[in-house]
Amino acid sequence: MTDALLLETREDDKTAAWWRQAAVYQIYPRSFADANGDGLGDIPGILSRVDYLADLGIDAVWLSPFYPSELADGGYDVADYRNVDPRLGTLDDFDAMVEALHARGIRVVVDIVPNHTSDQHEWFQEALAAGRGSAARERYIFREGEGPDGSEPPADWVSTFGGPAWHRVADGQWYFHHFATEQPDLNWDNPEVRADFVETLRFWSDRGVDGFRIDVAHMLTKDFAEKLPTSAELDLIPKDGNHPLIDRDDVHEIYAEWRQVFNSYDPPRTAVAEAWVAADRVPKYASPDSLGQSFNFDLLEADFDAPEFRRIVTENLALAATSGSSSTWVLSNHDVVRHATRYGIPVAQDSDAPTRHGGQWLLDGGDESVLDREKGARRATAATLFLLGLPGSTYLYQGEELGLHEVAAIPAEDRQDPTFFRTGGDEIGRDGCRVPLPWSADGDSFGFGSAGAHLPQPAWFADYAADAEASDPSSTLSLYREALRLRHPLQTGETLEWIETGRADVLRFARPNGWQVVTNFGAEAFDLGADAADVVLSSRALEGSVLPGEATAWIAPAGLLG
Length: 562
Ligand code: GLC
What we know:
By secondary structure, the chain is an alpha/beta fold. It is built from 17 helices and 17 strands.
């Protein structure tokens, strides 16, 4: 790359398009770092770890909800959208955190949960008190029940977390909740609801927030006929934009309004949709007139398999091109089994449900003798380096840079996830990836805080502690740091070209400036030949010119790194 081009890339990085190829690190605040010693992570805890985040080399952080919440769903039940949970700090703490992150060149994305509020939100409390027919109930979705005395739910629908999707209140009316009972769905036909979220977006934008992650962005608008379809009927309705509950075309009217808000800031605020929709529906959310970017979870749902990875990458780059957005890549987040673990258990231990990979193994007790930790770790870092080399943004989940595995051994009485309780334990839930981080190999709660951790940390967390890994050049943390550091000067145009390797289990691609990524998904070593001399990073050490199995190498021809 010439000096001029290099400069251009760095300048571009600083502009409104920073998000297009960013490495974004997801913080689950209640499990990150606990500064006030109450067992829950908090905003001052994040502030105390800004150096760690800067050393990691990420471009942005995305904070899962830190708002006041009764924690019926880990904070995704928001009681006040324009405040910080007092257990996590104050708005002043938030401002100080944003300032410190910005000072280190790290942008801040916050989570917006518009589909539902907490049942503790003042609007819902008002709706309960005000009774049927009131304006307060119009902010939610209340209906009369079926049967002579209205004691049957308006429909037999099942909530996403299991159990019924309708709940009866004291005066006999029912309300709809896609998720837990404590998460009543908002009525997005109500202009007051729309206006309030615009105010929330402005509130955080005015505080210097750079972007938003939109929770279940495909669920907000609904079309309820007089006679509701049964659950079985609902399943048969195509999800083509007119389904009564999911991925309706009219949801984009909301995002068009939000886009005006985002674009009224300089630089424009960004947004990324969490939209679990068919691949051909994703571009609507990712369009510049809508949210601008959307997650695709295809790699997260895929096996560690070269043809599958190649197909997914090719498809998603083509889809992103149709919307004008960049693609996103994700292997782990707060809702799924950590990828080091998914890749370390036999495929037969996986359940069929797409987002529940590893769930069956957990339900069976998380047998350590079945989990191959080393293999999982090898594959996880190989996959991560593959992702970080792709055009587009990569979203990383806290703890994966330490090589953390899922925590399987959580006693039922310590579990928090509503999916565990609402399914009577048929689903194990997501607590195992939300266990507070180990910062030090010893000390109270491995350095998380001074008063224990709100989910139990296993003894093996000591082997993954950030302080030990920071001083070990062969650690997963050191590899992530080096990859994220190199990714900046290597970053280039948003395309790739596949290079045939002669092996079905080895993928190789080149970016426009000559940066190449080779991933060996197989067990057999792969000879890089003369290119081995240009390897600038590899997830496993090369043996001569040979890339071992389950490993990725980055190749940068002479001059690319100056
Ligand atoms: C999203 C969140 C998940 C939450 C759900 C309901 O899928 O990622 O954690 O439980 O929405 O808000």
